[in-house]
Specification:
Blueprint (H helix, E strand, L loop, with lengths): L3 H16 L12 H5 L3 H15 L5 H6 L3 H11 L2
Helix pairs in contact: 1-3, 1-5
Length: 81
């Protein structure tokens, strides 16, 4: 099982790959909607990549309900236990 820090790096790296940004630009306080104007296709791409990377099923609602990246990481951490 990955630690929260390892999981955070996977999530931040995946988001930065999809959005075309640097990993350092994506913090736990980053709001994908407010800060990047992310659309549903980008969010689905992030979810699909995270599912492959973590071998975990992720509901789209889980990602859309997260206020920021940190909350998404917390959700995934709880699922990986």
């Amino acid at each position: 099982m990955p630690t929260r820090e390892e999981l955070a790096l996977v999530v931040r790296s995946t988001i930065s790959d999809v959005l075309g940004t640097e990993v350092a630009e994506v913090s736990e306080r980053t709001s994908l909607l407010a800060d990047y104007g992310i659309d549903s296709l980008e969010l689905m791409e992030i979810g699909a990549r995270l599912e492959r990377a973590l071998s975990l099923r992720i509901a789209v609602e889980d990602l859309t309900d997260a206020r920021d990246v940190g909350q998404a990481i917390d959700l995934l951490t709880a699922r990986c236990v």
